[in-house]
Design a protein that fits this description.
heterodimer; A: alpha/beta; Rossmann fold; 4 domains; six-stranded mixed beta sheet; three-stranded mixed beta sheet; B: alpha/beta; two-stranded antiparallel ribbon; 11 helices; globular
Chain lengths: 445, 314
Amino acid sequence: MPPNRSNLDLSDSDYDEEVDVDDYDGGRKHTGKTKGKELPKNRDMGLGGKDGYSWEATYTRTWDAVQEDEGGSLQNAVEDLLARGRRRRLLAPTGAIRRTIIRHLVILIDLSSSMLDRDMRPTRFDLTLQYTREFIVEWFDQNPLGQVGIIGMRGGLGEKIGDMTGNPQEILKTISDRDKLLPDGEPSLQNALEMARSSMNHLPAHSSREVLILFGSLTTCDPGNIHDTVQAAISDKVRVSVVALAAEMKICRDLCNKTGGAFGVALNEGHYRDLLFEAIPPPAQRANPSTGGSALSSNPSSDLLIMGFPTRIPESSAPSLCVCHSELKRHGYLCPRCLAKLCDVPTDCDICGLMIVSSPHLARSYHHLFPVKPYQARTTIADAAPETCGGCSLAFPVPRVTLSDGSASGVSPVGRYGCPDCQKDFCSDCDEFVHSVLHVCPGCS
Amino acid sequence: MSQSAQSHLTLILDLSPKQWHLSSLEPDGQALSLLSFITQVLAFMNSHLALRHENTISVLGAFPRKSVMLYSTPGANDSGLDSTAPQDANTYQPFKTVDTIVSSRIMEEMESISDSIDSPTGLVGALSKGLCHINRVINPATRSSIESSSPLDPRMLILSVSPDMSTSYIPIMNTIFAAQKLKVKIDVCKIFGEDNVFLQQAAHLTGGSYVALMQRNALLQYLVMCFLASSSLRKIVAFPTHDRVDLRAACFCHKDIVDIGYVCSVCLSIFCSPVPVCSTCRTKFPVKTLRRFGFGPPKAVGNGTSKSGSATPQ
């Protein structure tokens, strides 16, 4: 039984712990950090430089990294830091070509009274609702064929808030009313997990089953043995990830480790958002133990699906009956096999049973499969190098003396980044844009 | 009108010599040569610049196998051309600058094309460069180099003559989604040839319009009537909408455009016929499913594998 929240704040348990979660793709690492949410205490600050306590070793004094230039301006230093942040994000490992793309996710939101805690502004509860909304929008943007359901944990029960649906607007509507979701009582991990598991029972084997828990409490109030539920989740191949708002709990960590999910404890508002949004890119498929040679080994969760790409009929066409609601409508989609008129895609054709998706739905996830190679930071300007960026065709920034050696963090001192394939140079803005939004190298195509 | 933002137009000219040659050989009344195309487009560009003093333009050319930024307003002051060009009292200097630079750059690039006349144009390159440029121009954090403070309303116009290149399906879709994120409308004017499935989708998904020319010799009229209005005006004026949008995709194995496809559940690669192994992610599909699609017993599998094995798209 973990300590009560109020005890933790009062005690001097200001310890940090760095734990690497061995993700199966070896890519994502989380820093689980458990500490009281109070401001750093003054008595600790003096020990910062010495080999004192282990929690101070990783404490970076950000103000030391910023240096004024000759003119006393901070602009260069700030730009430098921004560029580093960008590069760090971009240099995160790519690869892992096998990813689950037809996803099903249940979000378990803790609605216990601990969510009223004000350590995150305005309250944990309000922040969670706000982030969940942003998360859902972004999630559907990247996983257009996925479905999301929401379950709340309140008063010792699991409470279905939103049914599994592929429509982001419907889901957003279910969590739009704050007053209906007001936190109360104790959370129950087991009840909510069982509910999530049973709601995903009917799914075909090729789709992923994922649970994302936003957990603010340090207790769970369960009717039975939660380890049985964990075992059941493992056997059902449900992947459970937890974002804890208070501190690390053994049961949460175990749950994530055993089911292949990610675990993280939010340090502050921004970190909470980062942890949450890490769950957006599709997870890599659990690779078989022998990867290289037996690449052709059969995977039970894979299947070949037959899909139809419809023709869209515009609003201006003559009204006709749709097969799904038998209503007169102008707008619709034509099934390519039986030419039945459907109201919306993606769906299954009611007449011939063909799965109808619009090809842009599929295409949205292709950039996960064929990522642009990371650009290399150029350290010097070659003689024949062009004066303008290969992407935006604007002039490169004038090289300036950087205050600190940028090569370690992958920042180019001359502000140029080169594509390993087409050997063209790009500015740092285009570098970020190409890798995070565009997903096409302007030079190679 | 005073509230409308200044608009930035990114014009992408499809300059495939082969297609333009074919276009000029059309029967009379329909023939449109490259030279007359360029004069009409220059007039359109001038009218865009004339609409509002702050309006900016950038012009990209998609040549065989490459794409070039021909002109862009913000950077024009740096180029030495406008200082050397003789002043003409009878023309408005900005028009003159645009016209000279664009036409001379097109001629330069056309001269340098030697053997690759047949190869597909660098439309994707032009699209992605245009988006990179728009990203730089609208992003306030990096706006220091460009002196303007009012919000920009960027849009794109593609003047296309080439047929669909199904090899570039994925990059084109990626650029479309990037344009969606930047809220850039992509308009497409199909000047010559068959309808482009991908460009139709581009216009449909970004909220632009796709117009195929009926009367090729009236190009300028089409351009002015359909594409000159900024997005704030489009709510008011009757704007051409496209009737049917073809939402088909290109299969990964033969790059054919298909309406019913076989899709790998792991990576969503599309195939035009059932395959035993996904060529993208190397997933092996269950025999049961393959049988159901009439693929045949696994003995015949070898044939299909060799066909699809090396067909991973770029």
